[in-house]
Structures are given as C-alpha cells and as structure tokens.
Amino acid sequence: xxxxxxxxxxxxxxxxxxxxxxxxxVFGYACKLFRDDDKAKYIxxxxxxxxxxxxxxxxxxxxxxxxxLSDLKPFEASREGxxxxxxxxxxxxxxxxxxxxxxxxxxxxxTNEEEEEMYKEEELKRVKSNEFAFxxxxxxxxxxxxxxxxxxxxxxxxxxxxxxxxxxxIAIPKKEKENARxxxxxxxxxxxxxxxxxxxxxxxxGNKQFSFLNxxxxxxxxxxxxxxxxxxxxxxxxxxxxxxxxxxxSDREHSxxxxxxxxLLQNPVCRLFGxx
Length: 276
Hints:
42% of the residues lie in helices and 5% in strands. It is mostly helical. The protein has a two-stranded antiparallel ribbon. A two-stranded antiparallel ribbon has the order 3-4. The termini are far apart.
C-alpha cells in the first residue's frame, strides 16, 4: 500500500511505498568451517587437477565438463569449409535451387542496386525516345545526294599540352580526335554534374568510342585526370573554346545542312553527341 507525503503538494509529492514483511521468508542451514592449511595449499598449487585425455599441458578438475567429452571431432569445424559440406545430401535439383537462393541473398554485396536501377530507368527512357526514329542526315532534296564526297581531315598523333601535366603512369590517347572526344566529355560532365556521366555511359554502352568511361579501360585514368583538371580550372579545353567562337558563324552558314528539331536543341546531351 502506498501513501503521499503530507508535507509536499502537487507534482512535488513523492510516492511512499510501505513495505510488507509478512510475505518475506528467510531461511538457511547451519554449517561449520574447518581450517585445513595443508589442504588449502594443496588446492592452491593445483595438485588436485588431472590431465585431460592424457595431456599434461591441459589439466582440469573433476567437475570440469570437458571430462565428459573424450572425442571432440564430431564438434570440430570441417577442414573442407562450409561450401564443401553444405551440399552433402542434396540432390542436383536442390543444389540448383540453393544456388539461386544464394544469388538472391548476396546480390546486394556484388551489385549496387541503386546504380543498377538508375541505369534501367535511363535505358527505358532511351528506348521510349527512339520509338520514332528519324534520320537527319538524309537531304531534303534527292538531288543533293549527288554532291561530291567530302575529304576527311587527317587524324594527327596526339601530344598532351604542358599545362595538362599528365603523369607518366597514365596512358594517353594516340590520336587527336580520340583526345578531343575525351576532353569534350570531361568538359560536359564538369558543367552538368556526375549524374550526366552515368547517363552518357548508359546511352553509349555499346559504343567503343566512349569505352574510356569504363573503369577497366586503359584511358579511364586519363579521362579522370582531364575531368579533375577542368573542374579545378587548371586546364581549358581548346576544342570547346574554338567551337564556341565559331558557333555563331557556322550556324548561319550551315543552318540548312545540319538542321535539328528544336526539341533536340534543348537537350545538352544531343549537342554533345552531335559535336562528337
């Protein structure tokens, strides 16, 4: 039973618990203590211990549970490992089911699910945008197709500019066109953000010209080096600078030859890939 203190009011009142000793029962047994100095010294020196399984280096007393275990082999871990013993007693169909279950269990350890979901969304968008294909390279007038073929510019060997300061352990592109493609992409990603790199990598997954976006590609480190230099302002992409200075005049001269739908002009990805 509890009661409130009379000297306190409101929230300051403390609950006073009255203890009931009627249900408390205390009992014990009387015992006698005998002092035996010799026995105490004998136990303190460990002379009462016995070797376990004949091993003098491991001694136990008679109350140790290990005395009831004469053979520990059934309880030891298998030397062959978990993967070797888990298949024992399973049929071929059960093993296949177990393997499928393992792939589902540890899928997140091998794959970044968020990045994979982003790739799937971008791929779905790309498929929907390409449902109605249109070739802008086809001339408006059939007579224009009889024009003389243009002579392609010679692709020169690429020599890095001194301000880029490429480390000696990083592979560089062999040709200038290949380097221009990497520099334009790095300049574009530095302006649009890392999400745009994922978008380009998804859209150009089967294009060998953009293989430098893959981590296992020899030019991946060079691309990252250029991207970092562009972000820090230590390196200015000349190809992009030259194109910006010529954009106004070239658009006026070739507006009829390189016509693009206005909706595509609003998409920066299309402008990049058109330039490449």
